[in-house]
Write a structure and sequence with these properties.
7-stranded mixed beta sheet, Spore Coat Polysaccharide Biosynthesis Protein SpsA, Chain A, globular, 220 residues, 39% helix
Length: 220
């Protein structure tokens, strides 16, 4: 059994680092569009299960509508705690491979997710760095609780070091779509340029973010 887990905090407080480019409603709408893109792709990868870890009712409804299973949290304890919960549940469910990706990587492809999952079969631990190589955008572990995961820069180097301390030889997969997390205004042009097939890029294109100040952007 292969499980792909996607931790998602509440949409209201999502993407605070985009404040310079987008207003509150725009950030919420973009976070929702990215979640749609990521979950559709994760489901299309045809693993055994896609789990969303969240406390947000709107996120839960989106996840279920797209064919994912919801692991509910009582409170938003952050990315690291959400992934730890999913690791434990995956182990209890008898999963042999655990994959986790964030909900803000709309350029990820189904092939990339499958490639990441397959890497854990031979290396036990596989990691995909963010474009900056500071963050960790993808993890695959076999078994699911092989090692604890801690997110937040510089998590990529930290994860590699932690794996090696356990006697593992982690695989590093530079996957171009998965490597792009939309987290700052500087990421938006790349999403527009590379994400024509995504809901996220189509939303940005309608807003014409590059030409208008945030207060002039209209959600529709």
């Amino acid at each position: 059994m292969i499980v792909c887990a996607v931790p998602v905090k509440d949409l209201v407080n999502a993407k605070q680092r985009l404040t310079r480019a987008l207003g509150p409603e725009q950030r919420r709408a973009l976070a929702q569009a990215m979640l749609h893109d990521v979950l559709r792709t994760a489901v299309a990868a045809e693993l055994d299960a896609v789990w969303v870890i969240t406390r947000d009712h709107e996120v839960s409804a989106i996840a279920r509508a797209l064919g994912a299973t919801v692991l509910g949290e009582r409170e938003n304890r952050g990315h690291t705690a959400a992934v730890a919960l999913a690791q434990q549940r995956a182990a209890e469910a008898g999963a042999h491979v655990f994959v986790t990706i964030p909900g803000d990587v709309p350029l990820v492809t189904a092939d990339e997710i499958r490639t990441l999952a397959a890497a854990a079969r031979s290396a036990s631990a596989a990691f995909t760095p963010s474009r900056s190589r500071l963050g960790t955008n993808g993890v695959a572990l076999s078994p699911p609780t092989l090692m604890p995961l801690t997110f937040g820069e510089p998590s990529f180097d930290n994860h590699l070091a932690a794996a090696r301390e356990r006697g593992l030889t982690p695989a590093v997969l530079a996957l171009p779509g998965l490597g792009v997390d939309i987290d700052s205004p500087e990421d938006l042009p790349l999403l527009l340029a590379e994400g024509a097939a995504t809901d996220s890029a189509r939303l940005l294109a309608r807003w014409d973010v590059a030409a208008r100040p945030p207060t002039a952007v209209t959600v529709r």
